[in-house]
Write a structure and sequence with these properties.
CATH class of the largest domain: Alpha Beta
Radius of gyration: 21 Å
Structural class: alpha/beta
Helix content: 25-40%
Strand content: 15-25%
Number of strands: 15
Number of domains: 2
Largest sheet: 9 strands, mixed
Order of helices and strands: EEEHHHHEHEHEHEHEHEHHEEEEEHE
Shape: globular
Length: 399
């Protein structure tokens, strides 16, 4: 890829020093609407019907709620209760920018770095943002620097690797039709293995999707870490380039950093990467090196909105966009909407996997709707939704 790793400016607050290799970031939380401390009295995890909720209460009686990833929070529950909640109780929620670091650095917590640790942090962060928004009567986007946009263009994601190219194409087109999407992402490769589940599917499907949708949609491709061989990854990348696909996601196994860099240097198509990543330092390394042109922190797996917005700052310093990955289920679409609303460089389209109503909730601001490939950003106070209190009353507190 033509992007060089030198000679570009850094954003304010991102510079690293020998004593601080990760770099300090200016805080995102805007205190002008929060003049008084908001001390966390309790942070509880609740479950009902396989859905995981976090309740944050302040000493002044304010309350905030959020929803964790439906399957990962179940696995991360002990980390949430015994590590994350214990660290955050008694702290001033206005210090949330600093708290997402201190919970990691406290004791030996850093040794737990990985998805289940940061899933727990993300769930807590979302609830504390809702708490702060409830106190300030402001949206999470307002508190994180201010809403920049109210309409969020979407790309619809799908997964049909087990199907042949013809049936895959039919379902991809049908998914685009469901919301009249102006962008789509389809799956290639075998997901963590080079061999397609249906032999020859990738090479056949790429031109088929381009022919069917290229004039209608921006088209993205996701290899999900399929190509151990750099040569094979580049070969597939060349096919994507010739069919004008707009980005190539995770061509190599996600932790093959050098191989991903070599693929990026050999191709013109932008490389998207980062949904599995949990290290702030590795994001900075891959961006600065020129190994990734579209960083993709997962808003839940990576630990929440603040850490993801930091990656956006790193990308902005290199003139890049930062388009996050979202996990299916829960309220992933909501957190995506908050991020895209306040981030200066979210990219042209955001990932969409459905507007979920598996439990009852309603917007506390403008209705959250999807029409013609665009979602209205949440703008109610806090995270922008209220979960039915009668439903929550039947949730069990996880001890």
């Amino acid at each position: 890829m033509a992007l060089a790793a030198s000679g570009l400016p850094r954003s304010q607050g991102v510079a690293a020093t020998p004593d601080d290799p990760i770099g300090r970031f200016d805080p995102f939380i805007d205190r002008k609407h929060l003049p008084n401390p908001v001390i966390v009295e309790s942070l509880d995890l609740l479950e009902r019907d396989g859905h995981w909720f976090v309740r944050a209460r302040s000493r002044d009686g304010a309350e905030g709620w959020a929803v964790g990833h439906p399957s990962k929070t179940r696995l991360a529950a002990p980390v949430f209760r015994h590590v994350v909640a214990r660290h955050l109780v008694g702290k001033d929620a206005r210090d949330l920018d600093r708290l997402v670091d201190t919970v990691y650095l406290s004791g030996s917590n850093y040794k737990m770095q990985g998805q289940l640790f940061w899933v727990a942090v993300a769930a807590a962060e979302f609830a504390l943002l809702d708490l702060l928004g409830s106190v300030a009567k402001r949206s999470a986007a307002d508190l994180l620097g201010g809403a920049r946009r109210h309409q969020i263009p979407l790309y619809i994601a799908n997964n049909h690797r087990q199907l042949g190219p013809e049936e895959s194409l039919a379902r991809i087109v049908a998914s685009v039709d469901t919301i009249n999407a102006k962008a789509v992402k389809f799956k290639i490769g075998g997901r963590m293995k080079s061999i397609d589940q249906v032999p020859g599917r990738t090479e056949k499907l790429i031109p088929m999707v381009a022919d069917a949708l290229g004039d209608r949609c921006t088209v993205y491709a996701d290899a999900n870490s399929s190509y151990v061989s750099v040569k094979k990854a580049i070969e597939i990348g060349k096919i994507l380039e010739s069919n004008k696909i707009a980005f190539y996601e995770e061509p190599c196994p996600f932790d093959y950093l050098e191989e991903t860099y070599r693929v990026a240097q050999a191709l013109e198509i932008p490389i998207a990467w980062g949904e599995q990543e949990s290290s702030q330092w590795r994001f900075r390394h891959m961006i600065d090196k020129g190994a990734v042109q579209i960083p993709q922190p997962d808003l839940i797996y990576y630990g929440g909105l603040i850490r993801s917005l930091r990656v956006a700052k790193m990308a902005e310093a290199r003139g890049l966009n930062c388009t996050p990955h979202i996990s299916g289920g829960g309220l992933g679409f909501l957190y995506m909407g908050i991020y895209a609303s306040c981030c200066p460089n979210p990219g042209p389209h955001q990932e969409y996997k459905g507007l979920h109503h598996a439990f009852p909730w309603e917007s506390t601001g403008d209705p959250i709707l999807v029409k013609d490939g665009i979602m209205t950003a949440p703008n109610g106070h806090g995270i922008g939704v209220a979960i039915d209190p009668d439903y929550l009353a039947q949730a069990r507190v996880v001890q």
